[in-house]
Design a protein that fits this description.
Low-confidence stretches: none
Distance between the termini: 25 Å
Number of strands: 7
CATH topology: Rossmann fold
Number of helices: 7
CATH class: Alpha Beta
Strand order of the largest sheet: 3-2-1-4-5-7-6
Oligomer: single chain
Helix content: 25-40%
Largest sheet: 7 strands, mixed
Structural class: alpha/beta
Order of helices and strands: EHEHEHEHHEEHHE
Radius of gyration: 17 Å
Mean pLDDT: 95
Strand content: 15-25%
Length: about 240
């Protein structure tokens, strides 16, 4: 079953690092943009520690990954990107500031749907990336921002005094969940998704083994849902 129509726009995508969105939701994002849905990105870090090369500085790798992110997003049709530029790997230590920033962006952009990391992805032993501290932190902060703080007039009252009104998104869709309940057919946009993923040469995503690796994952998700290739999410509504 294809649930793309449930991703009501505007859609705000909040991720920890460049490439997170393209890898885990790139096909879905491409389909949403094709359907005329407004999609915006928020990157909490610029991935400024994401390298095994000791000769590269944090500023250099961060600049490179921001450039890659802009190019990759453009392939999917996304132009509106906000970089918060917190240090890669340290988001749990700036969670309070990060929450205020995400609340501000939710009140500014007023999304109906948010795509972000699952703060409770399940059995992380099967996917260590899912429980990486930055991913967990972004999911938790975004959940709090969307369903607790952004709708509440007594949270961050300085924002309200500057003209930003409370706002509650309709739903969150979590990537990297071990318990997905929503599946999107990405067969027709697979090449566009992979074109975006291949942009991330700093992470080795241009190498020959990358496409077969991600295709296997998409095929496994597709088989469960009667399509060739799929992406998966866990949906959460406010109580």
């Amino acid at each position: 079953m294809d649930n793309i129509d449930q991703f009501t726009g505007p859609v705000l995508c909040v991720a920890a690092h460049p490439e997170d969105l393209e890898i885990h939701a790139g096909g879905t994002i491409a389909r949403l943009v094709q359907a005329g849905v407004e999609v915006s990105y928020v990157l909490c870090t610029s991935g400024n520690r994401g390298t095994s090369d000791p000769t590269v500085t944090m500023a250099e790798i961060g600049t490179q990954r921001e450039h890659e992110q802009r190019r990759a997003a453009a392939i999917l049709g996304v132009q509106n990107i906000t970089f918060l530029r917190h240090d890669d790997g340290d988001l749990q230590y700036v969670a309070h500031k990060l929450r205020a920033e995400v609340v501000r962006l939710i009140r500014q952009k007023r999304p109906c749907t948010i795509i972000t990391h699952d703060p409770f992805p399940g059995d992380g032993s099967h996917d260590s990336c899912a429980i990486y501290p930055d991913h967990i932190t972004v999911g938790k902060v975004t959940f709090e921002a969307a369903f607790v703080c952004a709708p509440g007039p007594l949270f961050y009252q300085d924002q309200l005094q500057s003209g930003l009104l409370p706002h509650k998104p309709r739903q969150l869709y979590f990537i990297m969940s071990q318990q997905p309940d929503t599946f999107i057919n990405i067969s027709e946009v697979w090449q566009k998704k992979m074109g975006a993923v291949h942009i991330y040469e700093s992470q080795g995503r241009h190498l020959p083994n990358v496409e077969p690796f991600f295709r296997r994952i998409a095929q496994q998700l597709g088989v469960k849902n009667g399509v060739d290739l799929a992406e998966s999410f866990r949906r959460l509504e406010p109580s």
